[in-house]
Design a protein that fits this description.
The chain is mostly helical. 83% of the residues lie in helices and 0% in strands. It contains ten helices and no strands. Helix 2 runs antiparallel to helix 7, helix 6 packs antiparallel against helix 9 and helix 9 runs antiparallel to helix 10. The chain is elongated.
């Protein structure tokens, strides 16, 4: 009677699909909300650089404090964006030259990009927190498989961790290239055009990063995760056979 109880329980757990918000929440709160709100407040609502930076700092500040107080850990990506915003607030008192102000705007995405690249080089890729929910999807079996893969306890661990780094490198590189494009545009394109074109640059590079990282990292990692879950299920089924007999 209890032969397939464990496997059936895992299957039922995988059938419980999380909402779209559950999947997108970490990436939205850590990256999209602070970066997007900054440009929205500044370009769409016409706020000053100081005000836009101050208001866009609310989300990463809340996320950082919550992680430290409640979860007893440091949210690296949210903390980095908070530091960037604070530094940018101090730099907002620099000369009001419009081209300099446009170029200075690129400091937000460039610093985040550099931070992400450094984290990948150190073996602790920041973008993992935003990617993991897409792959795990609230499934306990996938969560366990993820932990085995990142801890080195699986034959697929080395390949999995490499793809994890690739994901962060793609996103860090995209943000860095967006910064360079915005800085060059600030001094070569008319100011009135660059005011809205800068936002187009950001959206465009993020879209490219999403597609490229999906093909180079997310899809291979998803396959490795599925293979790890299948291997665990097979091991569990073999362990249950003697008990049923």
């Amino acid at each position: 009677m209890t032969k397939n109880t464990g496997a059936r329980g895992r299957s039922e757990q995988r059938d419980k699909k999380p909402s779209l918000w559950d999947n997108f929440r970490p990436l939205m709160l850590d990256v999209a909300v602070p970066l997007g709100s900054y440009y929205l407040f500044k370009d769409a609502f016409g706020m000053s650089t100081f005000a836009a930076l101050a208001w866009s700092s609310v989300a990463p500040a809340a996320r950082t404090v919550w992680a430290v107080v409640k979860e007893r850990r440091v949210n690296g990506l949210a903390g980095l964006i908070l530091v960037v915003n604070v530094v940018s607030l101090l730099l907002s008192f620099v000369s009001g030259d419009p081209r300099l102000m446009l170029a200075k705007d690129s400091a937000v995405s460039s610093t985040v990009g550099i931070g992400i690249l450094v984290s990948a080089w150190l073996g602790k890729p920041m973008m993992t927190a935003g990617m993991k929910p897409f792959l795990v999807k609230g499934d306990e079996a996938k969560e366990a498989a993820w932990q085995r893969l990142v801890s080195g306890r699986s034959v697929r661990s080395a390949a999995f961790r490499q793809k994890e780094k690739v994901f962060s490198v793609v996103w860090g590189g995209a943000l860095l290239l967006e910064c360079v494009s915005r800085a060059l545009g600030a001094y070569t394109i008319p100011v009135d055009t660059m005011v809205w074109l800068g936002t187009v640059f950001l959206i465009g590079f993020m879209a490219v990063a999403f597609v490229v990282s999906g093909g180079l990292a997310v899809e291979p990692m998803e396959k490795m995760l599925a293979a790890e879950v299948e291997a665990a299920d097979e091991t569990a089924r073999r362990a249950e056979v003697p008990v049923a007999a």
